[in-house]
Amino acid sequence: MNIIEKLNSIKKQELTAQENLENYLKIIDEKNNEINAFIYINKEDALNKAKEIDEKIDNGKKVGSLAGLVFGIKANINVEDKIISAASKTLDNYIGSYDATVIKKIKEADGIIIGITNMDEFAAGSSTETSMYGTTNNPAALGRIPGGSSGGSAAAVSANMCDISIGSDTGGSIRNPASHCGVIGFKPTYGAVSRQGLLDLAMSLDQIGPMSNDITGIALALDTIISYDPSECTTLKWDSPNFTEIATNQKGNKPLEGMKIAKCKQFSDITDAEINKIIDESIGKLEELGAKIIEINFNYIDLCLPTYYLINYVEFFSATRKYDGRKYGHRIEEVCGDEVLRRIKMGSYISQKEFSGKYYKKALQSRSLIRNNINEILEDVDLIVGPTVPKLPHKIGEKLTPMEMYAYDTLTVIANLAGIPAGSIKAGEVEGIPVGLQLQAKPLDDGKIIKVMAALENN
Known about the structure:
By secondary structure, the chain is of the alpha/beta class. 41% of the residues lie in helices and 14% in strands.
């Protein structure tokens, strides 16, 4: 069953919510010691919620649009009464005092939260090796990193420990691990989903989004969490499409007839050859499904990483000033890991008056250049496709320099800098290691990505 078929089965009581949950609890019990996807299991609350849903259905009462579906939540999104540590010693005793807006919406729709997933400390990483809870293993390629920073969320889905997981994406933190773990990951248009309750890494780049093993799971999650939130200043008022309807209607011989999809030479140029081979095969499939493929040039690829990291450093430094150890936790500089400390120090340096114009303001100018160029390209095409990540995940414990680690983000930071929607879907494997195809669209064209993903999945 795909996710929507399972949902319908629960609503008909062919499968109870409790049975669905208990199936996942059993898998977690069997696998989580090795995978380390979950850092906390919400067993008692989850079982009570499942029983409540089943009782509602038994009594003929209306249930929510996610009734009985099981969710994992990244450790930087507030869930009331749970330790929300962002996988850092800094917040090892911080208990969420409220539910983030996305959590409220999932609970209101009768989704079941099974637990909190592992991540890179404060989302500052691309491998989920920097967590205070230890490294997460990649279920699809054991012994290799799952990607990051939402590595626990991707691994939980890949290991069949939940129906849907929720992560955050600042420069690829949903799409990168989705690619490495062979699942679907989706970063909505910036502002489409409320960030209220997210422990931010870089507020002008962060976006919350879903991960799942099939496109109907992504669509159901988006239909729940995309909405205007008056308590969060970046959220958009827009008439979002019915993503579930789009995801379930892409069948037939040529479902992509009339779509114009671009591939970019510069993306291929910086990507390993064996990954390019898999991506080219997927692009060929898009053509078979009716899409017209054209080649475009994006001339600012070399600007993207430095632009992204300069902005990231400054905004992260600003965000961390509240972690001073006075009200909760510990002073961040005294307990954090090397990568978090590196970003704080770089952000502090760049933020100084004498350096702000030299670095940060130029990065903002560069961001405008990148955004304008990407939006110009997307005026003439429906989507841009290419590899999600330019190289395969390294083996756990292998030592990489900071620049080698940052290189994982080269192709994913573009969407965050431009504020556009982007997703990753499994395209194939290289020697058993998953490879993701990335799809990017213009702002608020999130539905076009769902359409193409569904066509790939269903045909």
